């Protein structure tokens, strides 16, 4: 007697998971990568949408680079106490201030994770099939998108102040890539801190302590050549140094890289990958 056509597969002797497994169809080796990329993009979009609720953040973040360029830059341009070769000091300073803005906007990005944990949002993400790596990478790259607004602001200020800029399209693309990679690196570092300390007060305290050493132990406001030997070692281990070097070579007319653009982008990419992996490993701790 033939089986009833309206009976379920389980009732006809089929395995319980027969409906979940497509028969005779192999999964594409690229489908996993495409899924990871898609979920990462979703996280980026969710993070960037938060700016709609508080767009004033973009303008308040513009105050600090404006003060550094208008006050510090103009004063030290007249003092001429810092040797910058044939580059005017204001030109030398502009890429460093952009790197500083990227650092400051990214290093405090992890506090949003603490808010999400308190609201229970993190638990929903962890219960979903979204890979932990996509969660960490999406949040890191969203910091890069936010940092692009700082690049626009610094470019406008530099243009007003008469900084000799490089408007070559390839150089502009290089600046965008450097800004996104640097912001993603420091955003991932911020996530690692947030996943370790777990409280807003402690996170803000650590963030404020770390920003100044990152900034002053780099080539943002003075060349590495005038640093003492011990500070040179720290500067060469600082990702912000490579960010400044890349931006200085790409932003300025006739700009040159001291360390080499290949090394600059290689260090930023390597630091970003390592920190994203660490953040992904620590991510489940957000639910505890």
Please render the helix and strand layout as text.
Layout (H helix, E strand, L loop, with lengths): L30 H19 L6 H5 L2 H17 L9 H19 L3 H9 L1 H7 L4 H29 L8 H29 L2 H17 L12 H8 L2 H13 L9 H22 L6
Which terms would index this structure?
single chain; 288 residues; mainly alpha; 12 helices
Outline of the structure:
The protein is mainly alpha-helical. 67% of the residues lie in helices and 0% in strands.
Structure, described:
With 288 residues, the chain is mainly α. The chain has a domain at 88-219 and 229-288. It is 67% helix and 0% strand. The protein has helices spanning 31-49, 56-60, 63-79, 89-107, 111-119, 121-127, 132-160, 169-197, 200-216, 229-236, 239-251, 261-282. The longest helix has 29 residues, at 132-160. Residues 1-24 have low confidence and may be disordered.
Characterize the overall form.
globular
Which structural class matches the secondary elements? mainly alpha
The overall strand count is 0
Q: Report how far the terminal alpha carbons are from each other.
A: 57 Å
Arithmetic mean of pLDDT: 82
Q: Which percent range describes the beta-strand content?
A: under 5%
- Tally of alpha and pi helices: 12
Poorly predicted runs are 1-24
Helix content: 55-70%
Sheet having the most strands:
none
Compute the CA-based radius of gyration. Answer: 24 Å
Order of helices and strands: HHHHHHHHHHHH
């Amino acid at each position: 007697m033939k089986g009833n056509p309206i009976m379920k597969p389980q009732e006809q002797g089929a395995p319980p998971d027969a409906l979940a497994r497509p028969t005779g169809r192999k999964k594409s080796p690229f489908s996993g990568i495409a899924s990871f990329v898609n979920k990462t993009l979703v996280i980026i979009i969710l993070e960037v949408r938060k700016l709609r609720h508080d767009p004033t953040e973009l303008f308040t973040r513009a105050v600090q680079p404006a003060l550094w360029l208008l006050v510090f830059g103009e004063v030290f341009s007249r003092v001429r106490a810092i040797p910058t070769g044939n580059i005017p000091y204001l030109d030398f300073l502009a890429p460093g201030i952009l790197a500083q803005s990227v650092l400051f906007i990214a290093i405090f990005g992890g506090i949003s994770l603490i808010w999400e944990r308190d609201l229970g949002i993190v638990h929903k993400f962890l219960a979903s099939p979204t890979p932990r790596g996509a969660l960490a990478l999406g949040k890191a790259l969203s910091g890069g998108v936010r940092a692009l607004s700082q690049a626009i602001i610094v470019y406008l200020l530099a243009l007003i102040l008469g900084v000799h800029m490089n408007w070559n399209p390839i150089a502009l693309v290089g600046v965008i890539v450097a800004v996104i990679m640097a912001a993603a690196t420091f955003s991932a570092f911020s996530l690692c801190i947030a996943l370790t300390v777990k409280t807003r007060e402690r996170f803000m305290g650590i963030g404020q302590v770390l920003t100044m050493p990152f900034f002053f132990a780099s080539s943002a406001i003075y060349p590495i050549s005038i640093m003492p030997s011990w500070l040179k070692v720290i500067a060469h281990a600082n990702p912000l140094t490579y960010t400044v070097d890349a931006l200085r070579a790409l932003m300025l007319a006739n700009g040159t890289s001291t360390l080499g653009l290949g090394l600059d982008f290689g260090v930023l990419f390597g630091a970003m990958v390592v920190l994203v992996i660490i953040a992904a490993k620590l991510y489940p701790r957000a639910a505890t």
